[in-house]
Amino acid sequence: MIQQIAFNPTRRRSLAWLAALAATVPFWTASAAAPRRIAVTARRFVFTPDRIALRKNESVILELTALDVVMGFSVPDLGIRADLPPGMKVEVPIQAASAGSHLFLCDIFCGSGHESMNGQIVVS
Fold it and tell me: Is the per-residue pLDDT at 3 higher than 60?
Protein backbone atom coordinates (compact mmCIF):
# COMPACT_ATOMS: atom_id res chain seq x y z
CA MET A 1 0.00 0.00 0.00
CA ILE A 2 1.30 3.43 -0.95
CA GLN A 3 0.89 6.12 1.63
CA GLN A 4 0.16 9.61 0.42
CA ILE A 5 1.78 12.58 2.11
CA ALA A 6 -0.50 15.51 2.75
CA PHE A 7 0.49 18.91 1.33
CA ASN A 8 2.25 21.00 3.96
CA PRO A 9 3.12 24.60 2.91
CA THR A 10 5.63 25.02 5.75
CA ARG A 11 7.52 21.92 4.71
CA ARG A 12 7.57 23.08 1.10
CA ARG A 13 9.10 26.45 2.11
CA SER A 14 11.75 24.77 4.24
CA LEU A 15 12.67 22.46 1.34
CA ALA A 16 12.92 25.46 -1.00
CA TRP A 17 15.18 27.21 1.52
CA LEU A 18 17.33 24.10 1.84
CA ALA A 19 17.66 23.83 -1.96
CA ALA A 20 18.69 27.49 -2.19
CA LEU A 21 21.24 26.97 0.56
CA ALA A 22 22.69 23.91 -1.16
CA ALA A 23 23.16 25.90 -4.36
CA THR A 24 25.58 28.22 -2.55
CA VAL A 25 27.86 25.47 -1.19
CA PRO A 26 30.40 25.65 -4.04
CA PHE A 27 30.79 29.37 -3.32
CA TRP A 28 31.51 28.70 0.35
CA THR A 29 34.02 25.96 -0.34
CA ALA A 30 35.87 28.05 -2.93
CA SER A 31 36.28 30.98 -0.56
CA ALA A 32 37.49 28.72 2.26
CA ALA A 33 40.27 27.16 0.19
CA ALA A 34 43.31 25.81 1.98
CA PRO A 35 46.22 28.24 2.21
CA ARG A 36 49.05 27.90 -0.28
CA ARG A 37 52.15 26.23 1.16
CA ILE A 38 55.66 27.36 0.31
CA ALA A 39 58.69 25.27 1.31
CA VAL A 40 61.69 27.33 2.41
CA THR A 41 65.01 25.77 3.39
CA ALA A 42 67.71 27.46 5.44
CA ARG A 43 71.34 26.40 5.38
CA ARG A 44 74.52 28.29 6.10
CA PHE A 45 74.22 31.17 4.75
CA VAL A 46 71.25 31.13 2.41
CA PHE A 47 67.47 30.78 2.30
CA THR A 48 66.01 28.92 -0.67
CA PRO A 49 64.01 30.52 -2.18
CA ASP A 50 65.31 33.93 -1.19
CA ARG A 51 62.44 35.72 -2.95
CA ILE A 52 58.81 34.87 -2.16
CA ALA A 53 55.97 36.43 -4.16
CA LEU A 54 52.56 36.76 -2.49
CA ARG A 55 49.28 38.41 -3.41
CA LYS A 56 47.81 40.97 -1.06
CA ASN A 57 45.67 39.23 1.63
CA GLU A 58 46.63 35.76 0.36
CA SER A 59 46.81 33.12 3.10
CA VAL A 60 50.12 31.28 2.94
CA ILE A 61 51.93 28.85 5.20
CA LEU A 62 55.70 28.96 5.00
CA GLU A 63 57.15 25.50 5.67
CA LEU A 64 60.59 26.36 7.02
CA THR A 65 63.37 23.78 7.47
CA ALA A 66 66.95 24.37 8.62
CA LEU A 67 69.34 21.85 7.10
CA ASP A 68 72.50 22.19 9.19
CA VAL A 69 72.35 24.34 12.36
CA VAL A 70 69.75 26.20 14.40
CA MET A 71 68.56 29.20 12.41
CA GLY A 72 66.17 32.04 13.06
CA PHE A 73 63.54 33.35 10.66
CA SER A 74 62.37 36.91 11.09
CA VAL A 75 60.23 39.28 9.03
CA PRO A 76 60.34 42.43 11.18
CA ASP A 77 57.88 44.41 9.00
CA LEU A 78 55.20 41.74 9.48
CA GLY A 79 55.94 40.85 13.12
CA ILE A 80 56.93 37.27 12.25
CA ARG A 81 59.62 35.36 14.17
CA ALA A 82 60.46 31.63 14.46
CA ASP A 83 63.32 29.37 15.58
CA LEU A 84 64.29 26.66 13.10
CA PRO A 85 65.84 23.57 14.72
CA PRO A 86 67.82 21.49 12.18
CA GLY A 87 65.80 18.83 10.37
CA MET A 88 62.41 19.95 11.73
CA LYS A 89 59.68 21.59 9.64
CA VAL A 90 58.29 24.75 11.24
CA GLU A 91 55.03 26.11 9.80
CA VAL A 92 54.59 29.87 9.84
CA PRO A 93 51.28 31.37 8.66
CA ILE A 94 51.53 34.65 6.81
CA GLN A 95 49.00 37.03 5.30
CA ALA A 96 50.29 40.41 4.16
CA ALA A 97 47.59 43.06 4.20
CA SER A 98 49.39 45.60 2.03
CA ALA A 99 51.50 45.57 -1.10
CA GLY A 100 55.21 46.10 -0.77
CA SER A 101 58.54 44.45 -0.16
CA HIS A 102 59.52 42.94 3.21
CA LEU A 103 62.99 41.76 4.18
CA PHE A 104 63.36 38.41 5.94
CA LEU A 105 66.54 37.30 7.64
CA CYS A 106 68.24 34.81 9.90
CA ASP A 107 68.41 36.36 13.38
CA ILE A 108 70.46 33.65 15.09
CA PHE A 109 74.19 33.84 14.43
CA CYS A 110 75.10 30.81 12.33
CA GLY A 111 78.71 31.56 11.43
CA SER A 112 80.80 33.79 9.19
CA GLY A 113 78.50 34.85 6.35
CA HIS A 114 75.44 35.09 8.62
CA GLU A 115 75.06 38.82 7.96
CA SER A 116 74.21 38.19 4.30
CA MET A 117 71.59 35.52 5.02
CA ASN A 118 68.37 37.22 4.01
CA GLY A 119 65.62 37.32 1.44
CA GLN A 120 62.58 39.25 0.36
CA ILE A 121 58.82 38.77 0.46
CA VAL A 122 57.20 40.74 -2.35
CA VAL A 123 53.46 41.40 -1.97
CA SER A 124 51.50 42.64 -4.99
Answer: no
